[in-house]
Amino acid sequence: MLQLYFFPMACSLSSRIALMEAGIEAQYHLAHIWTKQVVDDGSDFRDLSPKGAVPVLVLENGERLTESAAVLQYIADLKPETGLAPRPGDFDRYRLQEWLSFIGAEIHKAFLFPAFWYKDDGSLAKPRARIAQTLSVPSAHLAEREFLVSNSFTVADAHLTWALLLLRPAGIDIAQWPPLSAYLARMQARPAVRGAIATEMALRKAVAA
């Protein structure tokens, strides 16, 4: 069985969403991203992944995958019939990679990472100024589209859903981009997405308690 090491409402949420959308059973291990400890057995998370970051997907043969783009692509390819990723040879497969890269680099690392890890002492001025321009890109793309790639839900949607959820606590109200606000509402209406978020929100409260 696959094993996913995650932290509640961190970027690993997109991997949980993908697993649930695909109907793939997995064991979930909470890895505290600040203490670097695996909660269920007290082990050092860095022994599993020197990066000390989630997600980490451990395959049945013991191989480990890190980085959301790789983990999401792998999960999607386990169940190609679900359409979570376009099949090899389909040009939209490159569009999927395009969006996974954009979300990871331009929203996650460029804004969400500093917003949650650094004190707002002026160092966040540039990321905050840039995020509006960044969000205008998926907003324009989704103005007349239901999903990021093709006409169905893919792992890119799982990843963007997570990113949009984190923008509000990071001080960005996506209501100023109506297409993004409508898109997030559509994604949250999906049973798997709703279930994954509910699970991790409950765990997040428990971790914070």
Automatic annotation (TrEMBL):
SUPFAM superfamilies: GST C-terminal domain-like, Thioredoxin-like. It comes from the Bacteria. Keywords: Transferase. Pfam families: GST_C, GST_N_2. The keyword Transferase applies. The keyword Transcription does not apply. PROSITE patterns: GST_CTER, GST_NTER. GO terms for molecular function: transferase activity. InterPro entries: Glutathione-S-Trfase_C-like, Glutathione-S-Trfase_C_sf, Glutathione_S-Trfase, Glutathione_S-Trfase_N, GST_C, Thioredoxin-like_sf. Residues 1-83 form the GST N-terminal domain. Residues 89-209 form the GST C-terminal domain. This is Glutathione S-transferase. It comes from Bradyrhizobium forestalis. The lineage of its organism: Bacteria, Pseudomonadati, Pseudomonadota, Alphaproteobacteria, Hyphomicrobiales.
